[in-house]
Automatic annotation (TrEMBL):
<protein>
    <submittedName>
        <fullName>MT21C methyltransferase</fullName>
    </submittedName>
</protein>
<dbReference type="GO" id="GO:0032259">
    <property type="term" value="P:methylation"/>
</dbReference>
<keyword id="KW-0489">Methyltransferase</keyword>
<dbReference type="GO" id="GO:0008168">
    <property type="term" value="F:methyltransferase activity"/>
</dbReference>
<keyword id="KW-0808">Transferase</keyword>
<dbReference type="InterPro" id="IPR029063">
    <property type="entry name" value="SAM-dependent_MTases_sf"/>
</dbReference>
<dbReference type="InterPro" id="IPR019410">
    <property type="entry name" value="Methyltransf_16"/>
</dbReference>
<dbReference type="Pfam" id="PF10294">
    <property type="entry name" value="Methyltransf_16"/>
</dbReference>
<keyword id="KW-0949">S-adenosyl-L-methionine</keyword>
C-alpha cells in the first residue's frame, strides 16, 4: 500500500556552476566527491533528469537505511551514469545498463569519475528492456541487491518491456528504487501496474520537481 506518509524533500542544487568552455558538462557534488557529467544532446538518455538528482541525493542522505557497501547494484536506463557513479562511491558493485547508443557517453562518464578512486569498478553493459534477459543476465549467475531506475517512465512505447524487466530482476530480497518525474497519466498508470505486482511504498516526494521516489519489493507468499 502507498499509505505510509512519504517525506517531502527538495532537490538541493548540488551542482557547482562553472565558467566552462563546454555547454554540455555539469558539475555535481555527492558524498564529498565532485562528479563531472558530460551530457549529450543527441539522446534523451544522455541528459541528467530530475529523478537522477533525487535518487542520488536520497542515497547519499539515507546510507543507514540503504547501505550499498559491497552490495550488487543494477541500474536500468542509466543514462549519463550519475546514479551509478554515486552508488559506486557508496561502495556498491555497480552494473550500469542502457541502450547501445547511450553506452559510449555512459562509459566515458563512469570511467572518468571513478578511475582514481578506491572502489569497485563499475561495469557498463547493454540492456534493451525486455530483450535477451535470460541470455545476457541468466538468473543462475546474476542476483542483485538493488535495482535503481530514474526517469525511465515517460512517453515511450517500451513501458510493458520495462515493467517485465523490473519483474525479471526483482527477486526475493531485491529492493527496487525508482525515482520519476510524474507528468502524464501514463506515469500514474505505470505506477498502478507496479503496485499491483510489488509491495510498493513512496519513500519521498519532491513536489517542486514533481518527482516521487518509490521502493518496491517482491510479494513473498
Amino acid at each position: 500500500s502507498l499509505t505510509d506518509s512519504p517525506v517531502t524533500l527538495k532537490i538541493v542544487q548540488n551542482w557547482v556552476p562553472r565558467v566552462s568552455h563546454y555547454f554540455d558538462k555539469e558539475h555535481y557534488t555527492y558524498v564529498g566527491h565532485q562528479i563531472v557529467i558530460q551530457e549529450s544532446i543527441e539522446h534523451f538518455g544522455a541528459v541528467v533528469w530530475p529523478g537522477a538528482l533525487a535518487l542520488s541525493q536520497y542515497l547519499e542522505s539515507n546510507q543507514e537505511q540503504f547501505n550499498l557497501k559491497d552490495k550488487k547494484v543494477l541500474e536500468i536506463g542509466a543514462g549519463t551514469g550519475l546514479v551509478s557513479i554515486v552508488a559506486s562511491i557508496l561502495g556498491a558493485y555497480v552494473t550500469a545498463t542502457d541502450l547501445p547508443e547511450v553506452l559510449e557517453n555512459l562509459s566515458y562518464n563512469i570511467s572518468r569519475n571513478t578511475q582514481n578512486m578506491n572502489m569497485h569498478k563499475p561495469e557498463v553493459r547493454k540492456l534493451v528492456w525486455g530483450e535477451g534477459l535470460n541470455e545476457d543476465f541468466p538468473v543462475s549467475t546474476y542476483h542483485y541487491d538493488f535495482i535503481l531506475a530514474t526517469d525511465v517512465v515517460y512517453h515511450h512505447a517500451a513501458l510493458d518491456p520495462l515493467l517485465a524487466t523490473m519483474v525479471y530482476f526483482c527477486k526475493p530480497g531485491t529492493v527496487l528504487l525508482w525515482a520519476n518525474k510524474f507528468r502524464f497519466s501514463t506515469d500514474y498508470e505505470f505506477l498502478e501496474k507496479l503496485c499491483n505486482i510489488f509491495n510498493t511504498t513512496i519513500l519521498a516526494e519532491f513536489p517542486e520537481s514533481n518527482v516521487k521516489l518509490l521502493k518496491a519489493t517482491v510479494r513473498e507468499n
